[in-house]
Amino acid sequence: METKKKIIIVEDNDLYRAALKDLINAQETLEVVAETGSGGEALQLVKQFPADLVLLDLRLPERSGYDILPELANGTEARILVLSILESDHHIRAAFEAGAGGYCFKDASSQEILDAISSVLAGARYVSQPTVSHPGERRAEQRQACDYNIVWTYFNKDRLVSARVLNCSRAGCYFETPQHLTPGSTVLIRLERSAVAPQSKTAETVRSNAVAEIKWCDPRNDQYGAGARYHFQG
Questions:
Q1: Angle 126-115-95 from CA coordinates, rounded to 5°
Q2: Which of 6, 7, 107, 214 ranks highest by number of CB atoms within 10 Å?
Q3: Quick one: pLDDT at residue 211?
Q4: Per-residue pLDDT tens for 108-139?
Q5: Beta bridge partners of 174
Q6: Are 227 and 213 within 8 A, CB to CB?
Q7: Cα separations (Å) of 169 from 85, 145, 166?
Q8: Beta pairing partners, 152
């Protein structure tokens, strides 16, 4: 049996970190051995948990990812893959100069993130390329009717907005919420798990934590209806 590659996640957004952890642990050859939302704690974790790869956010409280990158690169044998919403050439270049082995955008698809992990683990340099989204796209897959509560937020935002999911599939969902969402944007979604009965037909398609792209958003009486497609479909 192939030994699993050990990964440490350094990400201060709880929703994104949970979704990323779910994606990685769903892979037969990867496992998350430690996680933290603190740059300072990350430096301790790499000493306590020998890892093959560190997934590093750049915007961290107290000590930023840029601040700890040189220490991680020089103090551990683990390779470093930056996951960030910062897409400028300046930020990418600075990360590589500080010791990163790869740079992947946070709103990349699950497959791209897995490809980036594989590339950096293999010693290859990886850089995400900007993509053009199609906000007007409507979903094509069949979804099941459902009715449960979620909260959603944009990246690096503290405010959680309540919503109600009315249909879903393994690839995405439709929900109604009091706040308009920008088509093409990426949001983090968390399920209020108590709203779903374990024996329900939709239980298998319900995502407890998800990163999703908003494909469209239209007015619905006093609410907004939004179609979302999951990035992480591991």
A1: 30
A2: 7
A3: 86
A4: 778 889 999 999 999 999 998 765 443 334 44
A5: 167, 227
A6: no
A7: 27, 9, 11
A8: 161, 189
What is the 3 state secondary structure string of the chain? CCCCEEEEEECCCHHHHHHHHHHHHCCCCEEEEEEECCHHHHHHHHHHCCCCEEEECCCCCCCCHHHHHHHHHHHCCCEEEEEECCCCHHHHHHHHHHCCCEEEECCCCHHHHHHHHHHHHCCCCEECCCCCCCCCCCCCCCCEEEEEEEEEEECCCCCCEEEEEEEECCCEEEEEECCCCCCCCEEEEEECHHHCCCCCCCHHHCCCEEEEEEEEEEEECCEEEEEEEECCCC
What backbone torsions phi and psi does residue 42 show, to the nearest 5 degrees?
Answer: -60, -40
Q: What is the pLDDT of residues 156-201, one digit of tens each?
A: 667 889 999 988 887 788 899 999 999 888 898 888 755 444 445 4
Residues 131 and 215: their CA atoms lie apart, in Å, by: 14
